[in-house]
Amino acid sequence: MIPTVLVLGANTGLGFEATKHFATMNPARLILACRSETRGQAAVDKLKAQTGYQHAELWLVDLSDLDSIKRFADKFEADGGRLDILVENAAVSTEMFRAGEDGIESSLKIAALSTPYVALRLLPIMLRTAREHSSIPRLVVVSSEVHYWTDIKKEVIDDPMNIIKKLGSKDYCNLKNVMGTRYWLTKLANVLFVRALTARLPASPTLIVTAVNPGFCSTELMREAQSSGIGAFVLSIVYALLALTPEQGSRNLVFAAVGEPDQPGKLQGQFLFNKQPVEPSDFVVSEDGKRAEERFWYDMLDIVAVYRAESSRPNDPQSECASGLGPSRAIESHRGDPSPSCPASLTSRRSISAAFGEWDDCVREESSVEVFRVAPEGPNRTRTSASANGPKCRLITSPRRASDWIHIGRVASIYYT
Ligand SMILES: NC(=O)c1ccc[n+]([C@@H]2O[C@H](COP(=O)([O-])OP(=O)(O)OC[C@H]3O[C@@H](n4cnc5c(N)ncnc54)[C@H](OP(=O)(O)O)[C@@H]3O)[C@@H](O)[C@H]2O)c1
């Protein structure tokens, strides 16, 4: 029996079909995370009727809204349960520019920011599960073969502006062909995230992380095209001729979640299709791809850090950098700068702590450069701090098991009072 499974975007398409497969395995807990209560409840009812599994739970989360993710993850932490399988399946395919207050185009935000943010918030719970139950949890990020069809231009990778904000800005999205290929970029962002996270995991697997390609399937993903009569007609023919059913495609998600039980390490960090690791795109493995991977990772952390800073202490004057720069600028100004002249805000520390676990007592160095390691909650918590004047890490507290560490990377400089 599998213990706890959580599927994001579970009310329809591949997510729902994967959930049905999981239900037939009779898991201790099966959580359908959906953005709409009505559609989510309908899916839970359908699941019960079609599989006989009666314990499915509906949790609400809207991945276009970081507040919603925060509430979702806070609730999961407070719930105190284990998490063995997390399937990050929710996505949008759109050619229309839509953005919330942060101005980041919504489908890119879901892939490049929200999907990593959910994973990083739930990572400590998965690591605790691994430790307490001697298991190897799995994180499955649903990507696609369309990531082969795009890349990211050198000038974007080299641009000092946050890469997610740049690619998600209205100005950039208004450029020719950008929104027409936006979905491909979102799926590339999924692959880059999986590789960036895997690079920070310990060699002996504590957690298996994969990107999976379900294949071309007849789901609601192309709902924009389906909304016009002619589009719906053309798609129905294309689907009939070429597409897998959602159930067939969902088998790929299930394989990533439970396949290779005797050698799960074979799957680590891989791009999976048809039950096996396949090469990701040439761009992904190129030098530029590697640089893009790092840019997405650190720029995602910066946005999350600033979000946490602003959402935890919105009116605190100390949340501003000493030079008068806002927290966002303060954090971004430190990338690659070993001796920052402007210390980042106090709230950077708080925000990271709130974003990635319980870190409240972590920083004891003034103007130090943080290297965060997420460890499971409890007495094993640990963190390191690198001095601003040198690259050597100094251990602040000792873990019992170093294998629990995950190197998150340098996030921000810290001004500690
Ligand atoms: N279908 C394909 O041919 C294909 C091929 C390769 C990869 N994929 C990938 O497979 C995954 C599933 O896609 P699908 O084909 O099953 O599409 P789908 O039928 O449109 O399902 C997408 C799911 O994501 C949810 N979702 C969208 N935006 C969300 C948000 N802001 N917050 C929370 N949930 C949100 C949707 O909820 P609502 O119903 O409320 O919108 C729905 O449950 C996606 O990652 C997609 O990129 C699909």
From TrEMBL:
InterPro entries: NAD(P)-bd_dom_sf, SDR_fam. Residues 312-347 are annotated as: Disordered. Pfam families: adh_short (PF00106). Residues 312-321 have a biased composition (Polar residues). Keywords: Oxidoreductase. SUPFAM superfamilies: NAD(P)-binding Rossmann-fold domains (SSF51735). This is Retinol dehydrogenase 12.
